Amino acid sequence: MDRPKTLPLAVVGVSHRTAPVEVRERMAFAPSEAEQALLELRSLAGVEEAVLLSTCNRSEFYLFPAVDRRGLAAAEELFRSHAGDLERPTADFLFRRHGEGVVRHLFQVSSGLDSMVTGEAEIQGQVRDAYERATSLQVHPPMAGPVLNRLFQMALSVGGQVRAHTAIGEGSASVASVAVELARKIFGSLRGKRVLVMGAGATAELMVEALARDGVRGIFVANRTLERAVPLAEKLHGHALSMDRLVEALPAVDIILSSTAAPHPVLPHSLFREAFPRGRRRPLLAIDIAIPRDIDPRIGDESEVFLYNVDDLRKIVDDHVRVRAGAVPAAERIIQQHSQEFRSWFASLEVVPVIRNMRERAEAHRQAEIERLFRGLAHLEEEDRARVEVFSRRLLNKLLHDPTVRLRKGMVDGAGADLVDAVRFLYGVDAEGRPEEEAPNPPTSREEGEGEAIQSKEWSG
Amino acid sequence: MIHLLAFFLYLGAFILWVRFLLSGARGDGPNVASAVVGVAVVVHAAALGSFWARYGELPLAGPGAALSSLAFVGGMALLALLPVRQVSRVGVALLPFITVCLGIALLVGIRPSDQALVFQGPGFVLHVTFAFLGYQGLAMASAAGFLYLIQHHELKAKRMGRFFHFIPPLATLDLLGQIGVWVGFVALTLALGFGWAWTVQHPGVISLSDPKVLWAILSWAVFAVVLLLRRGRGRREYRSALASVLGFSLILGSYLVIRLTSPGSGFLP
């Protein structure tokens, strides 16, 4: 087998960078479809290993080995047949990477660098799901074999390291997640906390859903007309109430989310004072994303009230996005380092059979020589034989130690290919590490004679 | 020597917490800092044990020895918080107090008191131990209160920066502050009770006008005020946090004043 100049890896797919949502949703694979696609890919193109990562922002086939275009062509065909008729050819939306570019790409994906919102954490779980889906397929050889297994394991590890050691995931990067983060920093656990939703905007709904995932209970939906509050209340498993009952509801809630289309504040300061004549005793988080504002800004001056309007939240999100963007170079350095590590690991796969064969051949020679020696020294005691045996092993190990270590190091340093060629030439080993031809046993008749001479001089009784 | 090692370990843990804070609460800083605190407390315990073995008395009398024991109680309290990841960050505010106590102890010398104490025995040990627990309770509440005030300010200022990410939630800090004040109040009350019982048994040894008695009563009053302030209307948590910080500062300040103005009072520690 000729040694490839680059890693025989490939990835082909669509992402938010190459295709709009209308195309991405057509090319997305449900979990069961993904399994079927992987099996088809193997049967069609003889791909040994494959993983399909499919999320709302990307669908990507990772392939190994990809020494010719058959695997890529089969994957593209799968996208084409899955997406059906599009306005433009499917290939226009696809991107392709080869060799080390695949490693870097996957590491960037798992670290959140290639996400729509830089640093988002959800992708890490999605990469894990894709990898586990491939490993769970009951096929032989495994769909995520040694190479993709290693690649995805490293990708998950790199994603974790990038998040732990850089600011790539710092802060929340959406209004809804900022709201949840603020609530957590005020209340600690959100279990059992009560929320009042004023209006029925989509963002407020998203925020309530996010809060509900954190354990918020007791959701009140207030609207100018009770009828309009009921559907959202039912959807969120909450209670509907009309705006004229706000005074009663306010003391019971911990969080207010407001997004009405009212042209004037629906929660004026006077109403707040009416609800809390002696001031609020417990903290209250009020998030007002309505334009014009629903909550009188003077309420934010109350001691236990933390009021955020849409500009405050946007500014926080922008700050976080800026911090995340600033962390990209540091994240890229981590990715670069681990890409090199993967390259070295892959190269080391090539050297393992060569080293093994080199040692096996040396060991065979050692054993042959020992046997020959003992035949000529039949009078030796068992103890002496054991000593000679140990000596020969030690000598062999010492002689092979440096070449073995240097060969491995050479692979890691990137100079290994020439070294492997040299070892193959010197030891007569083929690409798989097998001997190219059986070497004749080195001893000659002269050496036999020398052995006898030694026997007569040093080991004869 | 072992005390010095404990001092540097506490200092190291504090620096690690600060680094973690400045890094925007990223990396494995808390694990390393917590491990260093754990080692510091073990080393400190060994140092106090060695003192006991060497001098045949508990390190409770004599300014250096007493301050070291006071710092040790703080270290133990912090150790108890370490398993709760978020709460353990209070270490950044508590470790300076522990480190300064131990630093002063090292400066004045950790040795037995050269004054023969009039009353000794189990009552004395209980009195001093409960007093230390009481002061550390307030120190803990003060540390939590200090962080509460910063976090409150960050939330009001609508900033989600380093402090916001590093400091635990307001509710957590408030709970920790309450626990600190209540544990401290009960412990100090018991300490005063034991102290009073011994003065009854040894009349004339100590008078009500003795600086340390006045200081103890002042401390107890501070605790009572901090607890009372929680009961009023509005801003309970904020008031309580502020009162803990101010109360602890008042106790420390009055201690320094008394030490400076009546150095021969045999004040302990």
Estimate the strand proportion of chain B. under 5%
Overall 3D shape of chain A:
elongated
Give, in order, the helices and strands of chain A: EHHEEHEHHHHEHEHEHEHEEHHHHH
Give the beta-strand count of chain A: 10
Strand content of chain A: 5-15%
Order of helices and strands of chain B: HHHHHHHHH
Q: Level of helix content of chain B?
A: over 70%
Tell how many strands the DSSP assignment of chain B holds. Answer: 0
CATH architectural group of the largest domain in chain A: 2-Layer Sandwich
Tell me about the biggest sheet of chain B? none
Terminal-residue CA separation of chain A:
55 Å
Which secondary-structure class do the elements of chain A indicate?
alpha/beta
The radius of gyration over CA of chain A amounts to 34 Å
Describe the sheet with the most strands of chain A.
6 strands, parallel
Number of helical regions of chain B: 9
Short description:
The complex is a heterodimer of chains A (461) and B (269). By secondary structure, chain A is α/β, with parallel strands linked by helices.
What layout of secondary structure does this protein have?
The complex is a heterodimer of chains A (461) and B (269).
Chain A: E1 10-15, H1 21-27, H2 31-45, E2 49-54, E3 58-64, H3 70-83, E4 95-98, H4 100-111, H5 122-136, H6 146-165, H7 175-187, E5 195-198, H8 202-213, E6 219-223, H9 226-235, E7 239-242, H10 246-249, E8 255-258, H11 269-275, E9 284-288, E10 305-309, H12 310-326, H13 328-376, H14 382-413, H15 416-427, H16 445-459
Parallel strand pairs in A: 5-6, 5-8, 6-7, 8-9, 9-10
Antiparallel strand pairs in A: 1-3, 1-4, 2-3
Chain B: H1 2-22, H2 29-55, H3 63-81, H4 91-108, H5 122-156, H6 162-166, H7 170-201, H8 211-229, H9 236-261
Helix pairs in contact in B: 1-2, 1-4, 2-3, 3-4, 3-5, 4-5, 5-7, 5-9, 7-8, 7-9, 8-9
